[in-house]
Write a structure and sequence with these properties.
tRNA processing, Sua5/YwlC_C, 349 residues, binds threonylcarbamoyladenylate, EC 2.7.7.87, eleven-stranded mixed beta sheet, 16 strands, 11 helices, binds magnesium ion
Length: 349
């Protein structure tokens, strides 16, 4: 079932969302929009339901899921009493793209959700439709991104259908998501240390502003270490089918390098693609050139990245080059995702 929120009037919206919520309560798996990417939801207390998420995505069982709530009062059931630092972050960033890893309360969530960890990642999405659905469902909803494992996360309902049609019970379609990259996942140590396990919609800078005394320990876009603290970090994610290279350096050098490489690949008969900022878009002659928007507004690049990577796949592109960006603000999350999509092939020119 596809419920198209945009086409529904107020009254019908509630009816259709009620149908989706009832499916969730009955052990179904339903995809829904959030402000970051589309999620694939199931009742987090039900092992049968959560098992269907892993099966539909083809997700490794040792990668835990984020639990979504609509109301702070749902937290008591899921997690042990949060620290003052956790409360401060919730006050400031919820609803919003911040997942906080908290000590889990035993016996409520399906063990599949936490993948055997003593912690649970929780967030409250800043999205009207998501919040309405979560409130109607009335249960904690486990939801990873609604893509097949290893594909770019879905920023449109069409992407969900492309990957998961026939494997899930329904999709709530409310058009494009906002941020376009996943939430920031943080782990807290004591009252002062915030460890960013995955950069995302809430920037390091805004965390620092919210808690000026905090020590913020940020995950880099380098290849993950041996024993990642966030299990999801060890998997090759967001990989397009073509081979992607991330190119950094002075703009003129970047343009020269990509033009040379793409020209040579074209001469070999390969289908080529470039992900570039508006400022230099016209300088590339690859078969598929996608705009990341202006370099001075990286939010647009975040919003567009995953759809562009899917576009490359649809176009059968074999070799892709992406322009790097400064790792400031949302740029940190953007570089993290582009580096992963590149399988950490990053060249400095
Ligand atoms: O924006 C988002 O976070 C989206 C939307 C749907 O909410 N969800 C999402 O879920 O990106 P997923 O499953 O694709 O990514 C969850 C990430 C993984 O890297 C996972 O390892 C990490 O969060 N994670 C979940 N629970 C954790 C825990 N208890 N400790 C450490 N990392 C955890
Ligand atoms: Mg994901």
């Amino acid at each position: 079932t596809i419920w198209r929120v945009g086409r529904l009037e107020g009254g019908r919206l509630a009816t259709e969302l009620r149908e989706a919520a009832e499916l969730l309560r009955g052990g179904g798996v339903v995809a829904f929009p959030t402000e970051t990417v589309y999620g694939l939801g199931a009742d987090a207390r039900s092992t049968a339901a959560v098992g269907r998420i892993f099966a539909a995505k083809g997700r490794p069982a040792d990668n835990p899921l984020i639990v979504h709530i609509a109301d702070r009062r749902q937290l008591d059931e899921l997690a042990l009493s949060p620290s003052e630092l956790a409360e401060t972050l919730m006050d400031r960033f919820w609803p919003g793209p911040l997942t906080i890893v908290l000590p889990v309360r035993e016996g409520v969530l399906s063990p599949l959700v936490t993948a055997g960890l003593a912690t649970v990642g929780v967030r409250m999405p800043d999205h009207r439709t998501a919040l309405a659905l979560l409130a109607l469902a009335g249960c904690p909803v486990a939801a990873p991104s609604a893509n097949r494992s290893g594909k770019p996360s879905p920023t449109l309902a069409e992407h969900v259908i492309e990957d998961l049609d026939g494997l899930i019970d329904g999709v709530v379609d409310d058009g494009a998501t906002g941020v376009g990259l996943e939430s920031t996942v943080v782990e807290l140590a004591g009252e002062r240390t915030i460890r960013i396990l995955r950069p995302g919609g809430v920037t390091r800078e805004s965390l620092q502003l919210a808690v000026p005394g905090a020590v913020i320990d940020a995950a880099s876009s380098e290849a993950p270490e041996e024993a990642p603290r966030s299990p999801g970090m060890k998997y090759a994610h967001y990989a397009p089918e073509g081979e992607l290279e991330l190119v950094q350096g002075r703009p003129e050098a970047v343009v020269r390098y990509i033009r040379e490489q793409a020209g040579a690949a074209q001469a070999r008969g390969e289908a080529t693609g470039v992900l570039a900022f508006e400022e230099r878009l016209g300088l590339y002659a690859a078969d598929h050139v996608y705009s990341l928007g202006s370099e001075s507004e990286l939010e647009a690049a975040a919003h567009r990245l995953y759809a562009a990577l899917r576009g490359m796949d649809a176009g059968g592109v074999q070799r892709i080059w992406a322009e790097a960006c400064p790792e400031r603000g949302i740029g940190a999350a953007l570089m993290n995702r582009m580096a992963k999509a590149a399988g950490h092939r990053i060249v400095t020119v």
